Amino acid sequence: MSVSASGYLRIGATDVAAWMDFGTDVLGLMDARREDPAGARFLRMDDHPFRLMVEPAEADGLIAAGLEFPSEDAWQRTCEAVAESGQSVTPGSAEEAKRRGVTAFATTADPAGNTLELYWGRELDYTPLVSPQGVPGFVTTYQQTGDLGFGHIVLPAPDIDATASFYTNVIGMGLTDTLYPPGMDGIKIQFYHANNPRQHSLALFNGPHPLGVVHIMVEVETMDEVGRTMDRAEAAGSHFLATLGRHVNDNMCSVYLLAPGGIAVEYGYDGMLIDWETHVPTVSTEGDLWGHDYSFPDVNE
After folding, report:
1. Domains contained in the chain, CATH given
2. Fewer Cβ within 10 Å of end Cβ, the chain: N or C?
3. Rounded CA gap, 92 and 109, in Å?
4. Where are the beta strands (DSSP E) in the chain?
């Protein structure tokens, strides 16, 4: 297995300041205060230079997902496999690599058109993490297994079979489980793990999405931090896309909030960690043990 983790996201925002306020004041992420000539802002969760890059854009949505590889060799072999699969691979410049805090990266797209940045050699920032909301830490590492990534991301993939084959046979991820949500005929979501214990680092939804991302997830260390975030979100007037609930597949106890511009952010605790040597992929027909009642905003809001 090649991919170490889902390392970072590049998010396009029509109102960067509003996104940063949401990231710091509600989610409790740290403003990395990195200089950027293009006007991007950066949010930290741990010792990585950033996990979320929020960039000025004419439309809100996901720009790219950064997937981390453990070595130059693994990265190079994967880039070659992507090219052999028929997807274009564009090496990033040294200047753009420095902007991302990586040794090298290359840009490609999966068969659904989702943009990926494949990289290796992240340059860490040893400045202590100080959450403006007092969050003591985010779950991005586990004991001696190393990086778990920023959390997870769910991407749209109308042709889910071709896209799934790309992630498993070319990128090097493994299938964790498949969900057929109750009451949603024809909908399928497949979950994939990287080479770390997190139950899934990426998932595919078999339909389109106007923002290019179904949701992103960040995880905290205690249930109390989820509750405090809910209080901050309510005080800030954030839209609750889903009430508090616990998922069947990864055991995550979480709430869903809408960031400025509409990207859904799952904020959770107690996600399952798995030993891949013994795991057998599962099939679920229930999404939640309890909770997660959804409230989708009106399109005119």
Report:
1. 5-126+137-291 (3.10.180.10)
2. C
3. 14
4. 5-13, 30-31, 41-44, 52-56, 61-69, 90-91, 102-109, 115-122, 141-142, 146-147, 152-156, 174-179, 189-193, 202-205, 215-219, 239-247, 253-258, 264-269, 282-284, 288-291
| Cα–Cα distance, 30 to 96 (Å, whole number) | 22
Tokens 């740290």 sit on residue: 30
Q: 49-103, pLDDT tens digit by residue? A: 999 999 999 999 999 999 999 999 999 999 999 999 999 999 999 999 999 999 9
Helix, strand, coil percentages in the chain from 3-state DSSP, rounded to 5: 20, 35, 45
Does residue 148 contact residue 213 with C-beta atoms inside 8 Å? Answer: no
HEC-encoded secondary structure of 250-273: CCCEEEEEECCCCCEEEEEECCCE
* Dihedral angle of Cα 57, 59, 62, 64, to the nearest 10 degrees: -50
How far is it, in rounded angstroms, from Cα 46 to Cα 223? 19
- Nearest-angstrom CA–CA distance, 22 and 59: 18
Evaluate whether 63 touches 72 at the Cβ level (below 8 Å): no
- Phi-psi group of 254: left, alpha or beta (phi > 0 → left; psi -120 to 50 → alpha; rest → beta): beta
**pLDDT tens per residue, range 174-188:** 999 999 999 889 999
Alpha carbon distance 140, 150 (integer Å): 6
d(CA 105, CA 103): 7
Distance between CA atoms of 203 and 192, rounded to whole angstroms?
Answer: 6
Which DSSP symbol is given to 114? -
Considering only CA atoms, which of 11, 6, 57 is closest in space to residue 219?
Answer: 6
Cα 16 to Cα 9, 13, 153, 164, 287: the distances in Å are 15, 5, 20, 32, 33
Handedness of CA 229, 49, 75, 141 (dihedral sign): negative
